[in-house]
């Protein structure tokens, strides 16, 4: 009987030990999951965003600036830093780096090397410059006075909203979609197979060459959007 009691006590202790180990494992797993999200504490003001490489950036306009990286940022060969008001984000890892950014104001968006930037809400800004290179893409909704866009290298820009003035320069198979964007004054320059989508019509350099004034067809198409 004594031996049986001893065996029973041993079994109980083993069971308790197993429960402790399992509970500890769950805590470690939870901690590992939490480490996937990294909030950067740098509070230097940001009004420019530059993304490069295998990254996707979700941007919102709000009163309180914040930067959150949805990955084990410190364990990757990635860069996220603020320099002279510019938030620079870059990564060339196989897994895409996702970053959520909230800013009060925005003056410049730059994207290159297949980076993507998505605007979550409408940005109300005075002036904005957008530069895209090497298969980058940007999709934003704007309410702005002056918009300047320079697109090249098979990049794509999707615009929604409105601007009082806009200047667009597109080359090298770049594509711009302004079918849901209106502007009162515009200067559009397309070259080297670049194209622009206006309403349901996609205009290329060959289309506008039919006009005596290379910009006439594009300007007429833009007027129909307003």
Give the gist of this structure.
Residues 47-199 form the Putative auto-transporter adhesin head GIN domain. The protein has 226 residues and is an alpha/beta fold.
Describe the structure.
Helix content is 20%, strand content 52%. It is an alpha/beta fold. The protein folds into two domains: 1-34; 38-223, 3 Solenoid (Pectate Lyase C-like), CATH 2.160.20.120. Strands 1, 2, 3, 4, 5, 6, 7, 8, 9, 10, 11, 12, 13 and 14 form a 14-stranded mixed sheet that branches. Mean pLDDT is 78; it is low at 16-35 and 208-226.
Q: What's the CATH topology name of the largest domain?
A: Pectate Lyase C-like
What portion of residues is helical?
A: 10-25%
The fraction of residues assigned to DSSP E strands is over 45%
Q: Poorly predicted ranges (pLDDT <50, ≥5 residues)?
A: 16-35, 208-226
Secondary structure blueprint with pairings:
Elements: H1 2-34, E1 37-40, E2 48-53, E3 55-61, E4 66-70, E5 78-83, E6 86-91, E7 97-103, E8 108-112, E9 116-133, E10 137-151, E11 156-170, E12 175-190, E13 195-198, E14 201-204, H2 205-208, H3 216-223
Parallel strand pairs: 2-6, 2-8, 3-7, 3-9, 8-9, 9-10, 10-11, 11-12, 12-13
Antiparallel strand pairs: 1-4, 4-7, 5-6, 13-14
């Amino acid at each position: 009987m004594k031996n049986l009691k001893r065996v029973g006590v041993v079994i109980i202790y083993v069971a308790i030990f197993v429960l402790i180990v399992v509970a500890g494992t769950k805590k470690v797993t939870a901690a590992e999951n939490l480490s996937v999200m990294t909030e950067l504490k740098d509070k230097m003001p940001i009004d420019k965003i530059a993304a490069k490489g295998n990254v996707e950036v979700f941007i919102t306009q709000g009163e309180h600036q914040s930067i959150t990286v949805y990955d084990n940022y410190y364990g990757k060969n990635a860069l996220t830093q603020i320099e002279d008001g510019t938030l620079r984000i870059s990564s060339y890892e196989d897994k895409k780096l996702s970053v959520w950014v909230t800013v009060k104001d925005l003056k410049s968006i730059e994207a290159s090397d297949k980076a993507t930037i998505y605007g979550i809400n409408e940005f109300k800004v005075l002036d904005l410059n957008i530069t895209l290179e090497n298969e980058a893409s940007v999709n934003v909704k704007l309410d702005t006075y002056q918009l300047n866009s320079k697109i090249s290298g098979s990049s794509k820009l999707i615009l929604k909203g409105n601007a009082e003035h806009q200047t667009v320069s597109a080359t090298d198979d770049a594509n711009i979609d302004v079918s849901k964007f209106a502007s009162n004054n515009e200067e559009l320059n397309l070259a080297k197979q670049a194209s622009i989508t206006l309403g349901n019509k996609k205009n290329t350099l060959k289309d506008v060459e039919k006009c005596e004034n290379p910009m006439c067809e594009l300007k007429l198409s833009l007027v129909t959007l307003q």
